[in-house]
Design a protein that fits this description.
Peroxidase, domain 1; 8 helices; 4 strands; Glutaredoxin; 4-stranded mixed sheet; 2 domains
Length: 185
């Protein structure tokens, strides 16, 4: 079984458990924390991936990191995953849970990349346009990329609107290479 399937199976089990316990939103916050901690600490991933590190040590690490910061249900789940020797998958499980949570709540994640920071008015406009297009609530993540030449790039729901100047130049170059503007008479 590959990691994608493992992550989805465990995340689905956690989602069903959190629905039964009526703590879906709190567990989603906990999974965001788990994902962030695992992403920031390369050493943690190395320890979790190392089969030489004893299981009780990995359990102690998970307990020390998350016991005071997450709900009891989330902590029990993290310890269960660690006991099953899947601690290397904690970040993947957390990310899969967040994706499933968004589907469950009808939320679409949008990623907006611009050259310069945008103001609240532009952020609200983009959010409203994506919400109108998808019919879902929008969770907008905007960031800047100083290498980007003008305009913006917006990704949501496996779609991308690319309004970068670099993309427009590439399209024009391809059109000129195909001689679209040359008379065929």
């Amino acid at each position: 079984m590959n990691d994608y399937r493992i992550n989805n199976h465990y995340a689905k089990a956690l989602l069903l458990l959190s629905i039964d316990m009526d703590v879906v939103d709190r567990v989603a916050d906990d999974m965001r924390l788990v994902s962030a901690v695992c992403a920031e600490n390369r050493e943690l991933a190395v320890v979790f991936a190392n089969p030489v590190v004893p299981l009780d040590r990995k359990l102690a690490i998970v307990n020390d990191l998350f016991a005071s910061r997450v709900t009891d249900a989330t902590l029990a789940f993290l310890l269960f995953v660690t006991r099953k020797k899947r601690s290397i998958n904690l970040r993947g499980i957390a990310d899969a849970y967040i994706t499933m949570f968004r589907d469950y709540r009808g939320i679409v994640f949008s990623d907006l990349v611009t050259h310069q920071p945008i103001d609240d008015v532009a952020r609200r406009m983009v959010t409203e346009m994506v919400a109108e297009y998808t019919g879902k609530t929008v969770e907008l993540h905007d960031r800047t990329d100083p290498k980007m030449l003008g305009c913006f790039k917006l990704e949501f729901d496996n779609k991308m609107y690319d309004a970068r100047i670099r993309t427009k130049i590439r399209r024009l170059r391809n059109q000129f290479a195909r001689n679209d503007y040359e008379s065929k008479l």
